[in-house]
Amino acid sequence: MYKAVLVDDETYDLIGMQQLVPWPSLGIEIVFSTNKSMAALRYIQNHKIDLLVTDIKMPLMSGIELARLSIALQPELKTLFISGHQDFDFAKQALHLRADGYLLKPVDEQEIADKVRIILAELDEAKQPSQLLPNYGIIRQDMLRRLLEGSMTDDTLHQLLDTYMPVVHTGPYHAVLIEIDHVEANLQNHQTIDWVLLQFSNQLARMAFGFGCRLSITRAALVYAGTPHSLEPDIEHIRHSIQSKKSYTLTASYGSGVLQISELPRSYQEATEAIDSKMFAGKNRLIPPGHIKFVTAHDISDVKILTEQLLDAVTGYRLVTVCDTIEELYNQESVHGDPLRIRRFTMLLMTKLEDYVQENGESVNKSGDWNHVGMAAIERFETIGEIKSWLRRTAFELSETMQQKSDNYQWALLPDIERYVQTRLTSDVSLKEVADAFSYSQSHFSYLFKEHAGVSFSDYIVRERMKRAKELLLSPGLKIYEVAELVGYNSLTYFSRAFKTYSGMSPGAYRKRI
C-alpha cells in the first residue's frame, strides 16, 4: 500500500478526511495525520511517504511551504492541496510548485477519492517497470546505452528487446540527447539529470521505448519515433516546459532518422557530434544533425600574424581592432575543432597576452578581472561566444590599464557612455547593464567611471535624474508624480526625498520658486 500524510489545521476537516475517504480501498495507508504543519514536516523528515494531502492556509507554515520542503526531502513525493475559495494567491503558488492535485473547499470525500485515484495511477505507472524484474531500471538503461553505442550484437539485441525494451512505436527512429548547461559534478546533479529524463519520459508521447538513459551527470539519451517535423516541436516544448520551472537551461540534439533499431548507433553518433558542437552552435537550444559547418577564413592572415595584431592593438588602445582581430582569430580553420582545442588555443593566447603586457611594464594581476576569473574560467565556458566575450572584456581592461599611464589619457568611451545613460534615465538603469553594454566587468567599469567622470556611477545617475527633473518641473502641465516617473522613480516619496537632498528643497517648493 502507498503511504500518505494528512495535514489540516481545521480539526473537523482533518477528521472528515480521515474517516470519510475510503483510504484502504484506494490502496493507501494513512501513516500520520496532524493539524500542525511543523509536526508533519518532522514526520516526513524521518519517514518515506508517497502522498501528502494538505490544507494550504495554515498558521506558522503554509501547506505550500510544507510541500516545498517535503519535496526537497523526497523529490518523488506527490502532493494534493486543499484550499478555500479566498486563497487565490496560494492557488497560484501551488500551480507554480507543480501540484499533482488541487481542490477547493468545501470538498466532499468523493472529490478527494477521485483526485487520489488519478495520482495513484501516476504512482503505479512510475513504479511498474521496477517490479517486473530485479534491477529492471538499471538493466534497461544499460541496454539502451549499449544499443546506442553499437556495442551489442544483433543476436543479443533481438533477445533482450522483447524482455527489457519492447518497442512501443514504429520508426523512423532518432537518437536524442539532452544536456544540462553549466553544471558542477556532484550527487545532486546526478539526481537533476535523472529528473530531467523523467520529465521527458512522462511528457514525450513518441518515445520508442518509453524511457531513456543517463550518460553522465549532465547528459541523457532517448530514442524518438517519428519525423523531424514532429520531433523538433515536441522536444522544444518539453525543454521550455522544464526550463520554466528550473533555474538551469537545456541543450538538446538529435540524429538523422533510421528505419531499423539496429541502425540507431549511426543516429546516435550524429546526435553526439551535434551536441558536442555546442561550443560553436550555442547552448539553450535544439541542434539538428549536420548543423555546424565550420567557416574557413581564406582571405585573412594566419593565426600567428593575427595574434601579433591583437597584442599590438591591446597595447595601442585600439579597441575596435581588438574586437575585429578576436573575431578573425576564432574564424580560422586551424583554431576550429573540438572544444578542447578551442580552450587550449585560448589559454595559449592569454599566456602570450600576459607575457606581452608584462614586457611593456604592466602587471596583469592589477588589470581587470583576470585574477578574479582566472585561467580556470576558460575550462567552464561552454560556447565560443562566452570565450570571445570574456577575452574581449579582459583585453579591453588590460588596454585601458596600460593607456592610463599616459599623461594625456582620456577615456574615449565616456561620451558614448553618458549618451547611453541619458537615453535610459526613465528606466531602472544599473551599473551592471551599462558595464555589460560596453564589455566591462562591473568593478573595472566602476573604477574607470569614477576616475574619469569625477563622480561614482550611482551619484552620476542621481545627478542626471535631478537635472532632468528640474527641467521637467518647468512644465506646468506635468504633475510631480509624472515628473518622478519620467526620471525613473516609481515612488513619489523616494523621488521627493532624493530631490530635496540634491537641491535643498522639495519638488513642489522648487516649482513655486520658479
Indicate the proportion of strand residues.
Answer: 5-15%
Which CATH class of the largest domain applies here?
Alpha Beta
Taking all Cα atoms into account, the compactness measure Rg is 31 Å
Count of discrete structural domains = 4
The average pLDDT value, as a whole number, equals: 79
Q: What is the first-to-last residue Cα distance?
A: 81 Å
User: Based on helices, strands and strand pairing, what is the structural class?
Assistant: alpha/beta
CATH topology of the largest domain: Alpha-Beta Plaits
Q: What is the number of helical segments per DSSP (H or I, 4+ residues)?
A: 25
Written account of the structure:
The protein has 514 residues and is α/β, with parallel strands linked by helices. The strands form two sheets. A five-stranded parallel sheet has the order 2-1-3-4-5, with helices on both faces. The protein is flat, with a radius of gyration of 31 Å. Helices cover 56% and strands 10% of the residues. The chain has helices at 11-20, 23-26, 37-46, 63-73, 88-96, 109-132, 136-149, 154-164, 187-203, 228-243, 264-276, 278-281, 303-315, 319-329, 339-359, 370-373, 376-380, 384-403, 414-422, 431-437, 442-453, 457-473, 480-486, 492-503, 507-513, and strands spanning 2-7, 28-34, 51-55, 78-83, 101-104, 173-180, 213-214, 219-225, 250-254, 286-287. The model is unreliable at 129-135, 294-301 and 364-373 (pLDDT under 50). It has four domains: 2-131, Response regulator (Rossmann fold, 3-Layer(aba) Sandwich); 135-287, Reverse transcriptase/Diguanylate cyclase domain (Alpha-Beta Plaits, 2-Layer Sandwich); 303-403; 412-514, Orthogonal Bundle (Arc Repressor Mutant, subunit A). Helix 14 runs antiparallel to helix 18 (384-403) and helix 15 runs parallel beside helix 18.
